[in-house]
């Protein structure tokens, strides 16, 4: 994989997954995603919770927002319940979207921790590239829609995606992937 070089010192990488960002650009969808992070809910329950928070939407609008989140892969059906001749779907979030800003006085501490961890991450990425280099290149090549786009940072995005998902599996799940 080509190494990222620049005349500018890179301090951070902001990841913008187009599926995620378009799905949560609507503030009510971000709120729904947050509600579903802890508890599976039906569209009717989501609607009631939104109304309690001061968001007056029709049930069809709420259903549309849930479907957009589902289509983006951010929520999934957790269970189905049969009642009164109908089926109720209960949705849960499978993705957490974080949108925060660190306090300005935290920068030095965060930078120090990142510097301490950087050698371990470099070794981890080198091992990942050694072990899965062919698959990484194949996936990154498949991400480029045209020859002109080959200069994009697909490899960086792919590595960050893998590291983010490994972080979730290793720290946030009750059933970490072994």
UniProtKB/TrEMBL annotation:
Record SMART domains: HTH_ARSR
Pfam families: HTH_20 (PF12840)
Every HTH arsR-type domain range: 19-111
Name used for this protein in its record: Regulatory protein ArsR
Source domain of life: Archaea
Coiled-coil annotated spans: none
Gene source species: Natrinema altunense (strain JCM 12890 / CGMCC 1.3731 / AJ2)
GO molecular function: DNA-binding transcription factor activity
InterPro entries: ArsR-like_HTH (IPR011991), HTH_ArsR_DNA-bd_dom (IPR001845), WH-like_DNA-bd_sf (IPR036388), WH_DNA-bd_sf (IPR036390)
